Give the backbone structure.
Amino acid sequence: MNCEIEHIYISPEHNYVGHHGMDPGQNPSIAKEQVTLIAGRGIEGDRYAKRDPGHPKQITFFNMDVVDMLAKHWEKPVQPQAVRRNVFIRGVDLPSLVGKKFVLQGIEFEAVDPCPPCVWMDEAVGSGTLKLLAGNGGLRAKIITDGTLSTGPASLEILPEGDVT
């Protein structure tokens, strides 16, 4: 299926994880046109690539249609980086990928689970965002093969069960 990677962000440190009961961190989401993906780890330079190999939060995808929905609801632009996900994509039904392997720009991924929105979304985007994002918080995936991911037009192929490239 044809799709579009509209934005890619990394952040070297967490702003919300581990900050319960405290102010969020001030680490920026850094926009990238191209990133290096490390199989079993994450995106080079991103906070989640520092975790032990094999963890399930190697990369997160978020649907741009949901960003559009938030902007319409709040009647103001919503910056994608506010939701602290990595890859903002249009033209893919992310929830339908859970439990499947897929190839995007020649890189193989395994869609692990939905990425639930957290309570910080209300602070980062607007009060009530947590509720609005129920079922639409994004997608966590494991990176199966190394590669370079870039913004722009792309093609996503869902692999048959058991198929590994």
Observations:
- Residues 2-16+29-158 form a domain with the M1 Pyruvate Kinase; Domain 3 fold (CATH 2.40.33.20).
